[in-house]
Amino acid sequence: MTRIVYVFSIVLTLILFEASPAQWVQTSGPEGGAAVVILADGADLYAGTYEAGIFKSTDGGASWQQKNGGFGDQTVVAMVKCGPYLIASGTEGLYRSFDGGDFWTLLPGFDVLGGVNTLAVQGTHVIAGTSYGGVYASTDTGATWVASNSGLPPAMFDALSVPSSTAAGSDYFIFATSFDSGSGVFRSTDLGATWTPAASGLSPGDIINALHSSGSTLFAAGTDVNKSTDMGASWTTASSGIPPYSAIWAFAPNGSNLFAVGLNGMFTTTNNGTSWTPVTGGLPVLEMKGLGLLGTDLIAGTIADGVYKSTDGGVNWSRANAGIRARAMTGFTVDGSVLYGSGAGVFRTTNDGDSWIGVKGDLNDSASAPALVYALGDTMFVTEGNIHNSLSRSLDGGSTWTRVWPEHSYIGIVKNIVRTASGYLTAAWNIYLSSDIGGSWNRVDSAGTSGGYLFSVERLNGALFAFGTRVFRSTDDGSAWADVTPTSPSFNQADMMAAVGATLFIGDKYAGAIYRSTDGGLAWVSVPAPATSLGTIDLLYGTGTALFACSEFSGIFLTTNSGTSWTDITVGLPLDQPVYTVTVHSGYLFAGTGGNSVWKRPMSQITSIGDPSDGLPARTTLVQNYPNPFNPSTTVRWTMATTDRIVLKVYDVLGREVATLFDGVSEPGEHNINWEAGGMPGGVYYLRMIAGSSVETRAMILMR
Predict the structure, then answer these.
(1) Is the pTM of this model over 0.85?
(2) Average pLDDT taken over every residue of the chain
(3) Which of 169, 191, 197, 616 is deepest in the core (most CB within 10 A)?
(4) Are 214 and 258 in contact (CB under 8 A)?
């Protein structure tokens, strides 16, 4: 009977989460991204990512598949195996899976505690450390939880945070801190029921990022690495060989070696922490947060370049990213038939995203994030945004690179380069010109461009524009400039520019404002901006008669009437996924997301989209019920872009229909209806909306 219910549940899940055919398609990469959590379970390997959820490998990291059913594209904070279950913490709650990660169920209550930031397991017992609710313990593999803060410091405003934990033998160790009572390591010998201090010798106020038990030795990593050989009764510093402030995030043993990863990469010790040595052998010089052991293979997760694997005890490493498409893509550059994408490295495709090749990925540090700012044949420029903003040049198509930008922290980041009759022109707070193919740069902005910081330079409709806190125009290839800053009192700064035909547009990122000029930039008027949830506009891009606006928080919007009205074209992209950039290439609109690499959609679909009627929703969608969790009633909301018949039904976890909330024709606009669940048992219910050929599902939690 159990097997029948299990199979039926899987079938129901597939039915509930059925959706209309996606108009957006994810390309094959670029692969990699931020792999912040690594978990090995038998022959299975899991990588928790930033903004792309969970990936699973069943072949030792040779290939990966995304496993986000019920979990979504959120950041993974912690993950453990407890009995037959996987338990994973994300930025939106705590989840459990009984089928190896194929589907995840939200565990209620933890979202109001600021989220779970650490998990530790002993048999069927598991503890969860929250951001400001202290410790919770479960004795039934995570099914039910109770607060377990006895002996921990009192917390002002419930701000008792537990950022790290470990299980050592039959004991638990945690690092806990509260606003009014300090911090420290605590030990429990009764499965989390009570806690006693175990921080003698640790520096007061030191934040412990990672706790680890290795045989009879405990390690606590914060500003320094500390160790204890007496179950936490006393601690001594064990950081020799690790640079200060390395912020160690994770440990993993391999034979007689212990490995640690942190802000400055990976380190290993063969003498129980007496001394440490850096690990290289093919690893990038990059912050690492995830570390695990699959059999005898070491698996490391980097903050920007995905997963690396070593099969020889950490001597040599190679990338293991096939199938992990979790990069944050921040920009595109088109050069003829080649499309370049920037996402903590530079990649190119010549087959519309079917395959991507790395052009520059030798990261100098976690913040360098190489981004292509110019490409014409073999001549390419890459900017890197570390503390010494820099510019590198390649004259052989990306095979070799040379640093060409003066390294001064007070010089802004180069975002774009324009070819002029005099050479190469860029703006980085001021205007710079190179007359030797970018080998050297000289400041040339004295003629009329004082009085503001400049972020970028563009050539639009035959004129050059340099813009930032002011906007300047040149009609003689940069020899002279005129101030054409919008006179609107609400103007703050111009972060981006675009052209649609003869019409120019300026975007003011944080003000969420757009300005339009029909006379070549001499005069500007404010135009309606897309209705973004947090107001930011990250990119304007014009092509043909279309203007696209990207919002990190709200998606992609299209206008074909110069901003009079906008259409949301985000439907089909991962939910809640930031979108940073778009470009048109080879008949497709490409979108760079904040954690799911690159997606594309045929322009023929997009140009056929009409602008919505003023004041009407841009799309038909089922909105999450509120409140959720609830007891005993909740409000169900939906929006309609067109008139259509919809059916709203509620199912229990076994797939049985328990209520029909609406079955009829719904007009364009916003709608809501209450569900009174007074006679229903507590638990998870699924709300399904069928609107035409589209099906959407939301999980609802009834608390008793």
Answers:
(1) no
(2) 85
(3) 191
(4) yes
